[in-house]
Amino acid sequence: MADRLGILAGGHWVIDHVKMIDAWPPQDALASITSQRNANGGCAYNLLKDLSLMGARFPLQGAGLISHDPDGEAILRDCDALGIDRTRIRQTDAAPTSYTDVMTVASTGRRTFFYQRGANAILSEEHFDLRSSNARIFHLGYFCLLDALDRVGPGGRNGHARLLERASAMGFITSADMVSNETADFPAIVGPSLPHLDYLIANEFEIGRLTGRACARDGHAKINAVMAAAREVLERGVRRAVVVHFREGAVIVPRDGKEIRLGSVAVPAERIRGAAGAGDAFAAGLLFGIHEAWPLDQALELGVCVAAASLEDATCSGSIRPWRVCLQMGRLLGYGNQPLAMMRPPNGARRRKTARHPIRTNRGRAVASELPRGRKIRKRTRHEQDPR
What we know:
Elements lengths: L6 E5 L2 E8 L11 E9 L1 H12 L5 E8 L2 H13 L2 E8 L6 E7 L5 E6 L20 E7 L3 H4 L8 H11 L3 E6 L7 H5 L8 E5 H8 L4 E2 L2 E2 L1 H13 L5 E6 L2 E6 L5 E4 L14 H14 L4 H15 L12 H11 L20 E7 L5 E7 L16
Helix pairs in contact: 1-8, 6-7, 8-9, 9-10
């Protein structure tokens, strides 16, 4: 594993047509579009763009299927500008590049998606060139929205399971994400892949659909049900950890070690512009920490902080900042002053004496972060980036 470096993200590549609206209308009524713009969307695209904007120093590689149309060419140009290796992104004339109309209510940030499945629907395991990649992590998403890979064949297996099994055998750390699809058969689509996953990332709706548990009520996560569902999925075969994020915070249930809980960043309502891409931003922060061999509580903290930063723009990645700035934002605003009072910052930082250490931003200005006194610092390789 030591000779592997970088993250290969495969699956969804989408152009989001983001439209801000004044209100969500009832059936047959009208709402006004106040502004609109095009932006990145989809699991692989969002994750890699976020990692680039966070300042990841390791290689970023994309895999997927797009068309030769203007949306597809825009994706390739953006990858080039961001330093993302796009040699594994295939092009086809059999379908258009997938796109989504994202309708975002300006006053609340709540969004609704109208999705053109396009090339993502015909993406199959044969489109993935894993052997040419020396990445450390292979991240796949989304389950339940990639038609060809979702399709269950004889024996109950599908393309996701075969692809992840192959990646595992080649030495990748494997992770995957789901989508909140109201109609998909989550157990049939996701279940066969669980033994081939090191990390599964989901929200409370998705983990509930996968296990048949009611993990939310009135728009809020039921923390005990979420934890029980995560433990159940871990027992079904996930090798390292199940990670669940939701409005109030996030949890990690690992196979080895203690369960970790952290409240969400207390972002002031007036700073929130939209929640599109927040789940992918969370995954970007989490996988950044995992790639850099951080303790899981610190990786979770960065995931929560990057997700919070993403809320300040209506597009998926418009407000993503360097990772140290995201981390500092979370520590300055604080965590979990919402419904999950039992959630605390990693290492109990609010309850212990702290020392202040400078963090230098990309603009060269020193800012302060808080770290528990006495934390032992492991010598890191020249590629790894330290959360402190």
